Amino acid sequence: MTFQDQIKQGIPAELPSIKAYNPTINHAPKRKEILSKAEKELAIRNALRYFEKKHHAILAKEFANELKEFGRIYMYRFHPDYEMYARPIHEYPGKSVQAKAIMHMIQNNLNYAVAQHPHELITYGGNGAVFQNWAQYLLTMKYLSEMDNDQTLVVYSGHPMGLFPSHKNAPRVVVTNGMMIPNYSKQDDWEKFNALGVTQYGQMTAGSYMYIGPQGIVHGTTITVLNAGRKIAKNGEGLAGKLFLTSGLGGMSGAQPKAGNIAGCITVCAEVNPKITEVRLSQGWIEEKITDLDKLVTRVKKAKRNKEVISIAYLGNIVEVWEKFDKENLYIDLGSDQTSLHNPWAGGYYPVGISFEDANEMMAKNPELFKEKVQESLRRQTTAINRHTAKGTYFFDYGNAFLLEASRANADIMAENGIDFKYPSYVQDIMGPMCFDYGFGPFRWVCTSANPLDLELTDTIACEVLEELKKGSPKEIQQQMADNIQWIKGAQENKLVVGSQARILYADAEGRMKIAEAFNNAVKNGKITAPIVLGRDHHDVSGTDSPYRETSNIYDGSQFTADMAIQNVIGDSFRGATWVSIHNGGGVGWGEVINGGFGMVLDGSTEAEKRLKSMLFWDVNNGIARRNWARNEGANFAIKRAMEVEPKLKVTVPNLVDDSLLQDLF
Ligand SMILES: NC(=O)c1ccc[n+]([C@@H]2O[C@H](COP(=O)([O-])OP(=O)(O)OC[C@H]3O[C@@H](n4cnc5c(N)ncnc54)[C@H](O)[C@@H]3O)[C@@H](O)[C@H]2O)c1
Hints:
alpha/beta
């Protein structure tokens, strides 16, 4: 059967043969057993809804086994035989170019070279799912292959509810992931309802089909490391010879060593998982692997002496490195952590002193003990970090809930006022005031031709647009513009593509609109050979309400509200997005954040031009307006500038209060 026919058939009428479990690829850890007997039966009943009755007897047993063995029902048997990657758009069956572009994006999210646990449909972050099971994937692809431009596919946490009549300017797909009644949003609720097959954790870009491999994050990480370097520079010197210690070589964390190289420092990144370490080595994202702590110390000392730009993976636990470098008095200039602490009890964080294999076993068989070990490890890690910061290390939280989980583990991590943490998050100190408040965020695009030459051309176009804009930019954003131009100029040379022909480029509202318009024109006049998909990470100005990350530099109390993310996605959906998504839990954990995103197809048409202008303007300025209302200086500047450009924009600006007035009130 051809690839197109396989897509069109959806769930096959006859059962495909059972697939052997492939131990050579990276699999999701076994999830803990959480369902009662009655709930397990419900999970099987739920899973069987996708299949004709005649298959139920066989599948019931098979799914029960999956539930027992892996803690979830993935329906492995239905994993398609064709290769999973983002094909050139014309290879997808269907009537709607927009729907075909979405298929391109979905397959990229599940590509073996891109996804963290491809057979479990997990793209990154340990639990960031595109779908819960293979039936959902097959059915979604089928719907996309048959839909028209006056229909909208509705997706509930991976489950395609169906095609509904709409109109040509409506989104083709509306996705919700993990949206819960607020009282049911604890970590164990995810375990339970995900095991039942009724919800999923979509992370940020996994469940919204917008993940573009680690490149997406390399850029943001480079900006973060560069600016962290600027913060610690005493005389404006660069990062040469300075040491950056961190952890994780996974989906996003794997970008750190590459970013460290681009920023020009020595990066040591600890990773406990040998398979992932090998993948990063073979991709060239790290240059050296060391398994012995003494050798690591010797190597780092040499790198410091020679001011090398080098990235080193330490295969082992990060806690060991913090402690060893303290003992050896090895000075760390910049420190962070990117273990997946948004998911601490199910494989996101491996406790020190226990082997990787034993930890995997313990988290499934003895979750209570595992939790104790994680918390003990976090206390040890914090103590070691505190010793380093006392010597001058600049430590920042990398949005992985390290500070939050360390505080929950009663580590010595609270500031003297008992409210704040001892250390800032990278958003509080760097990304918030320097980027988000001015509207700069992780704008990205994908060439659906899958042709590297198209990508090269888009890089040139984007660079020209930014260089032109920089000439008239105010001084407040000159540094951002310069960093982004430098990034796009080096993008080809840095060989950042893994999976689809995609590019990330931080840009503000004006930059995003002007670049998108130039792309649409290039598609129209045939210079670019197929439509371009625009999107962004949810980790942006407007898309995400997350009090310990994206909105951690909001200080008016509203950081615990989620109005902005909801407004964002509603607004995008009626201003022309091709698909929209709203998620519970991306990045920092289930119940801790609401995040929304969009995808937009530029097919060279006049309608696409109207849509991009209307939607991108809102998509950025919605967040700037809110940041301005929270009294953030940069955002106040940026929103006033936006109002000058667009007279139809009228935003409420705050009046500032003299501190002296508040002193004797209570
Ligand atoms: N890169 C960014 O810009 C960014 C931004 C915001 C948040 N984050 C957060 O960073 C975290 C990591 O994301 P990811 O996609 O890389 O997740 P991931 O799960 O793919 O990778 C984390 C890695 O850490 C390793 N690890 C866990 N405990 C360890 C330990 N004690 N010592 C050494 N290694 C250990 C795991 O084996 C895993 O490979 C997430 O919580 C994510 O939300 C990243």
